[in-house]
Design goal:
The chain is of the alpha/beta class and 325 residues long. It contains 13 helices and 13 strands. It folds into two domains: 151 residues, no CATH class; 165 residues, 3-Layer(aba) Sandwich (Rossmann fold).
Length: 325
Amino acid sequence: MGMWYIKKMKKEEELTQNINLPRIFKKIVIKIKKIFSLLTIIEKDNKMIVIIPERDSEKISEKKLEKYAKKINNHMYDKTNQILVLENKLQSETFKNLLYANNCKILEGRWLFSFLLPKVLEYISEKQEIQSKNIEIAILINDNREKALKTIIQLAKEVRMINIVTCDIDKFRKLEEYLYETMGIVVRITNNRKKALLKSNIIFNYDFPEEMLNQYIIPKKAVVVSLPGKIKIYTKRFSGINANFYRVLLPEKYRIWFESNNIYNEFNKAILYESVLYQKNSYESIVKEIEENKSKILCLIGNNGEIQEQEYKFHNNFTQAHLTK
């Protein structure tokens, strides 16, 4: 597996940092690279840093984006399992689609999001000033992959009640049996569109598309966290929190490496963190690292930007009402 960090240049000197030449010749090299759109590729600690010869402040035309994408694809032509991390200003769908054409995977922070759900639960309960043991949650999920099941087990240990809402109930029977027989935890598995979510304070949407999610009655002041991305909740009565992304604290040991290689400020920190953990071999090793790093959620992000702390306190009324039942 190869990890490639793609960025625009901050200073022209970056284009010759791996070349040992007199200054006058370096200037010539810089000029040539800019004229012919030549990439600068540097290998550091088994990671590849690709510098596009365009100033950070300049907008790149679609024609040039296509040219750079082809050049990047050419460098990875004979390599398998190549993973790309794009700086914020290169996160255009045009550029991504051109890179996808070479079967590259582009990290977007979604993979890590699922591992961080226990931390998201911790963050929400802290902001609402309610212990997680008093919270009822719902998981909207149809895919019963091992990673998802292990995360559900983690969450089930922390909350008062967990509801698994799925279109394929039989897929989750073994999980239901495992939780009850080994931990004494009762899980409700249902697909009742009118009642499944009614008592859930927090709803984690694993893989329901927008149209499917909106077929269920969503509590007015619930906190909805969608892993797939932005989801619009149609019902006008919903006044809760609708989150689709997060900011996470990047451990200092990784921050130092990224900063020293000029791939920090222009990148999404959640995606940088994901790029480190993505290379771990097992679910257990990833969870262990997250705990050892004392990772924590800094904020959740909704369709209109960061969700402010006072919004959680407002929706605390919904949680408190259910504690008395």
